[in-house]
Amino acid sequence: MDIQIHVKPIIETDCDTIVTFLVEDNAGYGGATDAIDKATNGAVQELIDAGDFTGKSGQIAVIYPRGAINTKRVVLVGLGKSQEFSAITLRRAVATGMQHARKIKAKRVATLLVRGGNDHALTAMQSAQAVVEGAIMGLYTYRGQKSDSTAQDEIDELHISVFNQADLADAQAGANRGKAYAEGAVMTRNLVNTPPNICTPAYLAERASDMAKAKGLRVEILEEGHMRALKMGALLGVAQGSGTTHTPRFIILEHNADKAGTLPTIVLVGKGVTFDTGGYSIKTAEGMIGMKADMGGGGAVISAMSIIADLQVPLHVVGLVPAVENMISDKAYRPQDVLTASNGKTIEIISTDAEGRLILADTLVYAKRYHPVAVVDIATLTGACVVALGKAAAGLFATDDDVANLLSQAGDFTEERVWRLPLYPEYDKAIESDTADIKNSGGPRSGVGTSAAFLKQFVDYPIWAHVDMAGMMVDAENNPTIPTKGATGYGARLLAYFIELWAQKSS
Questions:
Q1: Helix (H, G, I), strand (E, B), or coil: what is residue 347?
Q2: Which element (helix H / strand E) includes 219?
Q3: Does domain 2-142+156-164 have CATH number 3.40.50.1100?
Q4: Tens digit of pLDDT per residue, the chain (507 long)?
């Protein structure tokens, strides 16, 4: 979709559809809507007076101007109450409006910046970012491997009206930011939605390499021999079930690699299990459906690095993604095996379905070589976190209050929320082993806490956070910017905005 920004009244834009907005209490955010009302001899007010349109959040109405203005139709979208207006409500309203415009076969759509008022005002940059994010994220579809090649109804152009020349540069900058963030979410969705016979560890590494070369990131892909040399016994233990069919990859991406000695370093780590059978602790047939999404954390890190590169954030940021399958074969690891991680810790295997923490363990050890000021990992790690928080938020564990607060702030803005959970010492007790240093599971009644306690055993730097996004990877609810079926794209925007907030804090 081609996105253009113009300094002109929206009613003068040569498009087949206008998408405009009105608040529920009619508090005057709709300057453009007022102009449309006047040009159409009170058609907007007529809808309001009849009770057919109230401006309630997500409400839609369509006006056909019949030549009164140069457009075929006007789509009115409710913004909700004026005192609740924000970038989030605007982003959602734009997504709703664009989805309806596509439904009625619009091709060239015009919309505008909504700035709000009083304590809820947005800058031109903030408004433009919200508009572009809402449009791109709301229009996302995945057709994947469908054989039907019939052209789909898609919007070709989005024209955004800016009120005055002074706002043009900021609006363009905001649109660029919105495009970077939205395309990061789309990249994650596409990776997670890709079938596991296509999205293998090698495929994930190829996509990461392609992105890195396009965005100017340094990229290195370690293969199985490199991992053996690094003594990554925990990661390789999980990978060995695939034998020589789909061997593991260890993806390393660096932003500002040439400034590693002068800029603070943050490492992002993402779980990349491209399919999870559960191993010999096999999942049920129903439980195995959806396990192509078990690389959602890795997809989020790869896509976050794309956003960070686009925004040229002034930090040295490293993205690490261990990519493996967790399969069943005569070579697969078993319960009661003991694996040795790259820091020398021995791990008794209680459940082969607790594999994500094993591949993250060696990756967290590897992260230390960058001398990071902070490390954040993200993973579809435990069903227990889904039980605890459902689809409302991901679980967050952190060794530092500041990093937890920044992640929480980032999640609130991107609508990829996190909720902090405790790192109690009782969780360490639960993973003590009789035959090894630790065991990889504390049992069914201590899942989410012991998973974080396990990961902490491989952390050797002051600031670390762990995001368990198991409940957030697919099938969103009640948010027009996120698909209700398939991958949500969770994590990419969260991590990228967290990095931006860290950079602001460090400046």
A1: strand
A2: strand 218-222
A3: no
A4: 999 999 989 998 889 999 999 998 765 445 688 889 888 989 998 998 898 999 999 999 999 998 888 899 999 999 999 889 999 999 999 999 999 999 999 999 999 999 887 677 899 999 999 999 999 999 999 988 888 766 678 999 999 999 899 999 999 999 999 999 999 999 999 999 999 999 999 999 999 999 999 999 999 999 999 999 999 999 999 999 999 999 999 999 999 999 999 999 999 999 999 999 999 999 999 999 999 999 999 999 999 999 999 999 999 999 999 999 999 999 999 999 999 999 999 999 999 999 999 999 999 999 999 999 999 999 999 999 999 999 999 999 999 999 999 999 999 999 999 999 999 999 999 999 999 999 999 987 778 999 999 999 999 999 999 999 999 999 988 899 999 999 999 999 999 999 999 999 988
Distance, in Å, from the CA atom of 65 to the CA atom of 10, rounded to the nearest integer, reads 14
Cα–Cα dist 93/402, whole Å: 32
Contacts of 238 (CB under 8 A, 6+ apart): 273, 279, 324, 326, 333, 352, 355, 358, 359
Question: Does the annotation count 38 as an active-site position?
Answer: no
| CA 139-143-148 angle, 5° bins | 125
Topology of the domain covering 182-506: Aminopeptidase (3.40.630)
- Which of 92, 189, 357, 417 is catalytic? The answer is 357
Q: For the chain, report the end-to-end CA distance as a whole number of angstroms.
A: 35
* DSSP secondary structure code for residue 279 in this structure: T
Q: How far apart are CA 487 and CA 207, in angstroms?
A: 17
121 is written with which tokens?
């005002």
357 flagged as catalytic? yes
Rounded to two decimals, the pTM is 0.97
Report domain extents, the chain: 2-142+156-164, 182-506
Q: Can you tell me the distance from the alpha carbon of 171 to that of 32, in angstroms, rounded to the nearest whole number?
A: 17
How does 449-474 read in b/e, with b if 16+ C-beta sit within 10 Å?
bbbbbbbbbbbebebbbbbbbbbbbb
Residue 339 near residue 349, CB atoms below 8 Å? yes
What are the C-alpha distances in Å from 262 to residues 131, 256, 259, 265, 403? 36, 10, 5, 9, 21
| Residues linked to residue 161 through DSSP beta bridges, in sequence order | 6, 112
| Active-site option among 107, 231, 283, 345 | 283
Residue type for 487, please?
Answer: A
- What residues pair up with 108 in beta bridges, in sequence order? 157
CA triple 277-487-222, angle to 5 deg: 60
CA 183 vs CA 138, 332, 340: distances in Å: 12, 37, 39
